[in-house]
What does this fold into?
Amino acid sequence: MTTRQAPPPATRPSAATKPVRWAADAVSALREGARVRLDYSAQSLWRVDRLIEEIRREGAPYAAVETVLRGLGAYAGEVVVRQAGAEWWTSAGDHWVRTPDGRLWDPVDEARRCFAGDGSLRLLCRDATGAVRR
It folds into this structure.
């Protein structure tokens, strides 16, 4: 009689450790503080873009929202990872998402660009996941 063992659980690359934590922290903080629920769907990024726009309109200084932006960018990156089968990459402390087609995306920097009024996490996700479907 042969016994089969279950395959080992899937693990994520160590590059994912920090951005996954940042994203989870952002989801938790928004759920508890602002009563905003994020579900890691591409559609939820509409809400994230609007949230960043509201923060910008309120005139918050960048230093006060830097951690929030990092978390929201990581959240968008995690949406791309889940939707496109992508993975997190890191180098010199920076974190990117690499889609299966080999392209690198920087959702954390895109969140900063959103705060500056020139970016969209929703469009980054659309472009990154659309590139995979082609």
